[in-house]
What does this fold into?
Amino acid sequence: MNPAVIRNPNILAIEDDPVLGAYLYEQLERSGFLVTWCRNGREGLDQARQGQFDVVLMDILLPGMTGLDALVQLREGSSTPVIMMSALGAEADRITGFERGADDYLPKPFSMAELRVRIEAILRRVDLERRHLPVAAKAAGGELVFIEDACDVSRDGQRAGLTPSEYRVLDTLHRSNEEVLSKAFLYQHVLQRGYSRHDRSLDMHVSQIRRKLKAIGYLERQIRTVWGQGYVLSAGEDS
It folds into this structure.
């Protein structure tokens, strides 16, 4: 792991499988992470609320409380990045995870190399965010306000409730000055991994951003799909 990212990153692993849990604990510790391992959903939620973790790894099928339910409650007061882990590979399950605030989704079985890459990508993003001073852009009534320290946006005082990953996608498109950004660019520079046509993570983030902006009544600009090219934040209907 690159020590310049964050020294001794603190990871919470919520996994009830004793074999996989022990393997995660051992391998991540060897990679230089500080790891707390919980086997119960409710216990994991309590740990996530009380501790100062850089990333939470959360299984979906957990005793005590499902990972998805724990994620909903965690998001009520925490923006700690969460990577969902599950053997449930259906698109509907991935969508549900993103809808409830997951930053990434890793289907089982997965390699430790891939897990480390996903964790390190999140840590790099968090490190970059922490270098910026908290800034809330001033805007006229009805306009969108970007609240950098909270990784969220608001309109007339009403928060959209974006996840950190959703905020980064929207902020990057906002800063592009209506330039179309390719999926490959957004995967590389926002999600910090290569683009695969089978990876729907970006599409799901965009879908959630659209829904949340509409919920707070912001319709002036929308994320439009430019078929064959990518996405752009601009006025007008989605094409």
About this structure: Strands lie at 10-14, 34-38, 55-59, 82-86, 104-107, 144-147, 152-155, 158-159, 222-226, 230-234. The first strand starts at residue 10 and ends at 14.
